Q: What sequence folds into this?
């Protein structure tokens, strides 16, 4: 049996280390996975740089990583739907109890949920990792490990578009062309949006958005006035968008989304910014613009796998950098500097392919 379980461990703010951890044994309802591809998320970098996200504070060393896919190498005694050799995508949020949120299908809102790489729970950026088998989803032959890992950010886009009610003929504004804005773009188009305009500060990110199917791109500057940006969006689309999906968390961007959205439309807040934010609430209220929140996702992995297997969605262009696990610190630095879109770490020494 292999004894190498190299893991990426955050010890404290700014203190990221590569170290060996024991290879865990799977519990009765768990599987042991040889990890293959793990994407670096902005939240991983935020914990590294700040030691916390909101109320989630790092108090002890934590393994990072939650965008992941791997291969089953051992199954627990009660696991019947998976076997060694199966390739799986991992849903990182696992409810710990059958509470009211679990029963109503909103298990992502359970206050006691386990979630990879959210203090105090360890993530899966390691050579070997155990996870609840019910939250490991078998990948079809035509879906790669990297696509499996990208189901996690893709799920944010799916959940956001479902919350927004994107449907045939919808016109959509997406604020922010980072990884979450880009997957929201892919999902909105797949769900039937007729026109999508996406905004960002970065010309490179807008170029990637155009490549992925955006109908219009809007270059913004930090000093731009939200009402003016809203008028520019209306001019591009020939009318105000039915739906705005805000992926930055920036106050001015949330204001733009509200001003831009058609009366009777929906604004979905995906990006997390300051706890207290000034927004034109009365403007939204008198125009019956619904403002809806998004917290991660739920019940999205089967849909995502079906969309990837049918080639309705292509997430492959999102991966711009790849590093072996041994170069994790360099990979994190690449992400921190905002280079590329998605940085992928390759955890299997014998298989560095996508």
A:
């Amino acid at each position: 049996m292999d004894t190498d379980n190299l893991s990426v461990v955050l010890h404290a703010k700014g203190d990221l280390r590569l170290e060996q951890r024991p290879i865990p044994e799977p519990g009765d309802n768990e599987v042991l996975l040889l990890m293959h591809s793990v994407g670096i998320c902005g939240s991983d970098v935020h914990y590294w740089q700040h030691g916390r996200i909101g109320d989630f504070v790092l108090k002890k060393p934590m393994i990072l990583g939650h965008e992941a896919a791997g291969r089953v190498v051992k199954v627990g005694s009660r696991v019947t739907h998976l076997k060694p050799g199966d390739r799986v995508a991992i849903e990182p949020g696992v409810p710990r109890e059958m509470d009211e949120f679990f029963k109503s299908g909103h298990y992502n809102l359970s206050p006691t949920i386990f979630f990879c790489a959210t203090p105090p729970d360890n993530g899966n950026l390691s050579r070997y990792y155990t996870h609840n088998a019910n939250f490991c989803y078998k990948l079809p032959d035509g879906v790669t490990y990297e696509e499996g890992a990208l189901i996690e950010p893709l799920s944010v886009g799916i959940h956001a578009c479902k919350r927004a009610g994107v449907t045939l003929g919808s016109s959509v504004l997406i604020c922010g062309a980072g990884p979450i804005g880009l997957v929201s773009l892919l999902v909105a188009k797949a769900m039937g949006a007729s026109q999508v305009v996406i905004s960002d500060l970065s010309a490179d990110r807008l170029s990637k958005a155009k490549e992925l199917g955006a109908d219009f791109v809007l270059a913004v500057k930090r000093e731009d006035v939200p009402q003016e940006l809203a008028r520019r969006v209306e001019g591009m689309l020939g009318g105000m968008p039915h739906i705005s999906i805000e992926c930055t968390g920036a106050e001015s961007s949330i204001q733009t989304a509200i001003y831009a959205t058609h009366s009777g439309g929906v604004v979905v807040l995906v990006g997390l910014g300051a706890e207290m934010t000034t927004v034109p609430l009365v403007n939204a209220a008198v125009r019956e613009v619904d403002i809806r929140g998004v917290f991660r996702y739920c019940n999205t992995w089967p849909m995502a796998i079906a969309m990837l297997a049918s080639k309705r969605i292509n997430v492959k262009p999102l991966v711009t950098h790849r590093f072996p696990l041994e170069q994790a610190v360099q990979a994190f630095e690449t992400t921190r500097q905002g280079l590329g879109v998605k940085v992928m770490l390759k955890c299997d020494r014998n298989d560095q392919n996508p």
Remarks:
- The chain has a mean pLDDT of 97.
- The domain at 6-150+315-346 is CATH 3.90.180.10 (Quinone Oxidoreductase; Chain A, domain 1).
- Residues 12 and 51 are 6 Å apart (CA to CA).
- The radius of gyration is 20 Å.
